[in-house]
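Hey, I'm writing a tutorial for new members on how sequence and structure tokens pair up, and I'd like a real worked example in the thread rather than a made-up one. If someone can provide the structure for the chain below, I'll link this post from the tutorial.
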Amino acid sequence: MSTNTREQLHCLAHGEYFKFSSEMDKGCPYCKAEQARQDNAQYLKKTRFNLDSIESVTVRCDIHGEQTLNVPKKLADRFKHCPLCAEKSNAAALRVEIEKHVKQAMIDSGLPDNGLGHSFAAVDRSRSAKQTAIIERLIKYIQDLIAQGSSTGAKNIMLCGNMGTGKTYFATILLQNIVRRSYEASRSHVNDIQLKGGLAVQFLSEQTLQSAITATWANNAAETTQQLYQRLSRKAILCLDDVGTVTSTQTHLLDAYAYIFDERYKRNLPTIITSNMTHEGLRLAIGARAADRFLEKNRIIVANFDWQGYRTAQVGTDEIEIF
């Protein structure tokens, strides 16, 4: 059985990345790519106005005709193929590679399978006029993140309302769009695919968080409780689903919230919460200190899903299995 497992590593500049255990070089590939781009830029800057280093190359193509290109002499012998065809080929390969990376990111993020591949355009907005306003605000949230290329300073989000109103569904669409658009926004070559600004997301329910905490207590645990808290605290965007479903007497859960929200507050990183509770009741679920940091004035978007639930609305008895 192969032991070549994927290791999750962390870079201060680019966030989480993965390496196989068999790889000797554990350095951040994104840092190396950036250094290569900088080196190339410096080279082009030095040769840009040096006419002696430029050579004209003629390339013939059955599709695009004859083209004359001015290229550095050192690279002249490499320009034997049509650059327009090469660009088209790279674009097709890029789409395939981006899709591979997006799918893997969805798996790594823990997003629910039943919301993957969905979009806000397909959401049933007939329940309330407020739905369109919420969707438009979330779309702008995505656009602002991608334009900035980082989640630093982005607002927290609370999606609250009754069961079945689509809170988790909206959060899943939001997060997968951030991942997908981040990959698509800044990639130019198949060998240079990464999350723009390290916009990595993590989705987990309160129940999953509780299980993850108790798992760290085992003797052979993959990470300590402190390491779990630190990992979640550093994530560019963290989404906690169904907050308030686990009894508030679980002191270890309250300790987790106190640590994670305090650290994310200090790092100026956004947290997204879905809950059946109002933002007032949130203080009981996550503790007063954590709630104060999450609900800070001018740093929170609160969306109240006060319409009829999707899962139970308009369902006749002939559509339900009754035994």
